[in-house]
Amino acid sequence: LEPFCSQEAVNLFLKQAGLPRWHPIGRTRELAAVLASEDYCNHSPLLIRTIARWCRLKAVTVGPKQALLEVLREIHSLPTGADALADDDSALESDLDHPQTRFLFDILSLMMGPARRNDSNHGTSAVFVVCLSAMAVVFPEPRRVPLDVVLLLFEQILMIEPLAADELSDAYKHRNGRSNGNVGALERRRYVGLIVEGLLHMGVVEIYEVDENEGPWIEIHHHIYSMFAIAMAQVLDLGDSFEQTVQEWHKAFVTAYFEHRIQSGTIQVASNNSIRYAVQHLPSHIFEANIKQMAETILTDNRFFESRVDKLGWERAMEIHIRDCMELQSTIDEGMSSSSEVLVVSPVFSTTATMISSFVDSNAGETQTKVADLLHVSTALYTMAFSLAEHGYFEESLAQFHAAQKYTPPDSIELQASTLYGMAWVLLVSGDSKNSLRQVIACIKLMRNIENKHQLYMEARQLHIDILHERCEYKKAHNYLKEIESELLENEENNVIELGTVLKKKGSVLQAIGRSKEAVEAFSKSIEFKQRAEEQSYGLASCFCQLGDLHLEQKAIPAAKENYEMALTTLAAVKCDPEHVSFLIATGKSRFLKNDFAHCFASLEQAREAVSVTPLYLMDQSAYDLRVVAQIFRARGRLAEAIAVFEESLALTAHRSASLERASCLLEVGMCYLEFDRIEVGLDCLKESLSVKLSKLGKSIQVAQIVTTVGQVYCMNGEYEKALDEYSVAEGILKEVAPTDTERLALVIFAEGEAKLDRGDPDGAYLAFKRAMDMLSKDHASDDVMVAEAHHHMGCALVRRNLVEAREHLQTSVSIRSKNLDEKALAESHHWLGVAMRRSGEYNLAESNLSDSLSIRKRVADGTDLVAETQFELANVYRMQGESGQALTMYEDCLNLLKTGSVMRADVYQAMGHLKFFARKKDEALLFYRRARDIRQTSLGTEHYSTAYCTRAIGIQQILMGGEDALETFQQLVETCNKIASVEACDRIRAQHDCLLAMTLLGDAYSVKGDEQEAQESWRKAQDIGNEMAKVPERGLPAPEVVQMHERRLGGDTRSFDREEAQSLLSLMFVDD
Predict the structure, then answer these.
(1) What is the pTM of this model?
(2) Cα 376–380–383 angle (5° rounding)?
(3) Where are the alpha helices (DSSP H) in 391-515?
(4) With DSSP H G I counted as helix, E B as strand and the rest as coil, what are the percentages for the chain, rounded to 5?
């Protein structure tokens, strides 16, 4: 109540003090001052009532006037806090530390702790406070309870609490003049009655009857009195801790009820409301007392069960009994969670099911009654089964669903359908999708026969989709989703919640089958509907996360970042534990996009550990989570860790060989193995992934992607024809299933161009890249990342053909990529632009671009071949600028970065050979050239232009050193070059130049040996090759230096092959200048 006026305050005081309204005390200034003072009552009704009751209590022995004087004297001795007092009761209601609350508590303490006359130490009574505290703790508000149960509690408290027991013993000795203070049961009950009477006179409790047949009820008068009682329980020295005190008091009540009402056989003595209270609430008190064995005993006691049904009615009794059984199971689980024991289901469930079932057998009356009983029983069993399922006890849940089926009347179609739905759900989450599918189909069939739609009809249809998804029947699931979505959209306003859920499932299926753009649309619509329904849930957070994953896959970084942040906001709104897997993974992905890699990987490692403890197998949820974690490790170049996490993901789908999630993981881990140069393992993973996706999706985008990747592996192995065949298959699939998806088509064509470039067909490569560019230009902006990719590839293809155009394309690629966050791609373009600048002699620009590339690659791909590749090119720049020392140091660093079997080591040795050649260190140059040739022969074979390059460099060095072995070297080189040139798909310009140079140098080798006839013959053949080349100028003309060599030699100038001429020939070589 609000504060009273002065007269209302006086009237309330007189009434509660038991005095008539005309009593002279009401007109005293002393009373008026206390009631009005801000230091004391401040006209607060509750404070006035409490003081009045205290006066009334004292007046019993000293009269009203003296009682008031004593109360006023004690009040004035209390501490006050006038400045902090509020003008209303709001603070009193909520703040235990507020001065008014403390003042009230002080008054209650004084009133409930009167001086003990029989105590020689002049102590105060504690028995009223202890008993009221026990009542507030054991029967927390708001709850009225039967007086009978409170009396039982008080009687037990007087026995177990030393403060109360000692006071009672002293009172007993004083009253009876005995030295022995042992109080008997009857005497204790008399004291309990006096205590309740005292509490009633103090006004802290109320006793009343609602129904004369029920028995009296008791409750604490005001909730602030309850707050006082609980506060006193916490501060009194009653046990080791308040929690222990609570447990002991509940145990006291349970013990008292068992001893005095159940075991004694005197239950009939108890009032009806006492019995009803016991059958409804006794197990709850047992749980609070932590007596699991007693809880199990009472919940399996048939008499207790029957009493519940009798007193509470069937439905209410079943609801409470099943709730208590679940509470007992949770208590058992909690007690076992930290041990190595296997969690088991309490026998209370099977016993309860038996007791429920026996209800039918024991009530076999008329048919109509029998049907009603059957319905009651089956409904109860169904309810218990669902409770078990929701808590994860699937085996016991299925048993109860089967029992519910057994007792369900034939015409109770709704209950039959509900039971089938429950069984289908439990079978699904317990891993039996085959039988789950059977049950849900039967369930939906029954539901369709019901005139008014079953309340679980839409849930059953969605469950059907989940089962199909779990069974890897993705196309069926997708078709079914489209059907449901269409139906729901017919009445969109009434189906907002259902549409949000269905569209999320649709997005997940589309994501699984690789239709990313449609998945983005589905998730976006799902979020829209969920937000319209003002939904805040894990489902909404999952939508944001999966949408973010799709955006990240499509390199739409800002959108991905926004969705991850929205996921975190949603999880925070539903009070998700920050240690939950969903929260950790969303945090990791968000931090990744913010370049906060330390916190990113800390969160992802925690998520990884959490998944290992409690993986979610259903629909590959945890497998997907781990794959996302692995993707981020891979993106940062942490391949070993990425492979480990991918393998953990695969372990979770080992039992689901047809899972598309497994296939996606196999694809990605396969790519990691390839990057680790474990080609065979990587290729096996790709082929297994391809097999799954081909069987589930047929000709599809995902299948085309894997076929493309397999082609790239063949390309890595130098099997270019196999690679081109795979690319042709992939392009054919995409043109059939996704003819408008120019990006995917372009990626396949890029791969084709790269294969042709590696095979030595730059013209074919350029045409492929040009085709991809023309395709992308039709529907992509000029600054699109895919357009940048096309420019990059065209620039690479032109580096050895047209440096001006190559630079233009590469500069455009750098410009576009610098606006995006794909640092790896930007580093690649900087690298090749640096190469183009070096080839055109612009060394400063070359050094600038290569340094930029090296900086990025060291940051995002430290210790990989990419770092060595750029460092190698930068060393070439230094070498060509005459900075031999710095170049040599960088070449040596490259060798330290590269693995022993890396083909690129040959490039480094070759460059080091050039460095030693120009430094006139012949033996060292020859050593490095031979190391380069040996690596290339092992990795690429003898008949490869790169191997021929090394052989030519060795032969040139041998001629300069005057060695006779130069002739044999060039004879082998001519044979090799002719074989290379005979291959139809070779680089014709390169092949003809190589043959020309090989034949020219063979003549020089004969000349050095003194066989001028053979020398002249070789030079004439070389001239013939040059003349053939001149007939087709678009294929390239012989270099002027070579033409001059022919003219001079055939004209009779057979001077020795010198260093200047060798240097000129070395400058004509293609792979490295």
Answers:
(1) 0.66
(2) 140
(3) 394-407, 413-429, 433-448, 457-470, 474-489, 496-512
(4) 75, 0, 25
Q: Distance between CA 348 and CA 326 in Å, rounded?
A: 9
Query: Measuring CA to CA, which residue among 383, 464, 470 is closest to residue 432?
Result: 470
Q: How far apart are CA 150 and CA 196, in angstroms?
A: 9
Q: Which of 913, 838, 911, 917 is nearest to 881 (CA)?
A: 838
Q: In this structure, how many other beta carbons lie within 10 angstroms of the beta carbon of residue 994?
A: 26
78: tokens are 């209390």
Q: Vertex 898, ends 897 and 901: CA angle to 5°?
A: 155
Picking from 648, 680, 677, 678, the residue whose alpha carbon sits closest to that of residue 665 is: 648
- Tokens matching residue 235: 């501060």
Mean of per-residue pLDDT scores for the chain: 85
Q: What 8-state DSSP symbol labels residue 580?
A: S
Q: How far apart are CA 825 and CA 28, in angstroms?
A: 93
Helix H or strand E encompassing 816: helix 803-817
The residues, ordered by sequence, that sit 6+ positions from 531 with a Cβ below 8 Å of its Cβ are 540
Predicted confidence at residue 1072, as pLDDT, reads 43
Give the Cβ contact number of residue 673 at 10 Å: 21
Q: How many residues belong to the chain?
A: 1073
Tokens read off for 755: 């294969």
The full DSSP string for 448-466 is HTSSSPPTTHHHHHHHHHH
Q: Is 300 helix (H, G, I), strand (E, B) or coil?
A: coil
For residue 311 the two structure tokens come to 């007193």
Helical (H) or strand (E) element with 150: helix 147-160
Does residue 360 or residue 947 have the better pLDDT? 947
89, 2 Cβ separation under 8 angstroms: yes
Question: 283-314, pLDDT tens digit by residue?
Answer: 999 999 988 888 888 899 888 888 888 888 88
pLDDT over threshold 80, residue 1054: no
CB 730 within 8 A of CB 714: no
Q: Work out the number of other CB atoms within 10 angstroms of the CB of residue 395.
A: 10
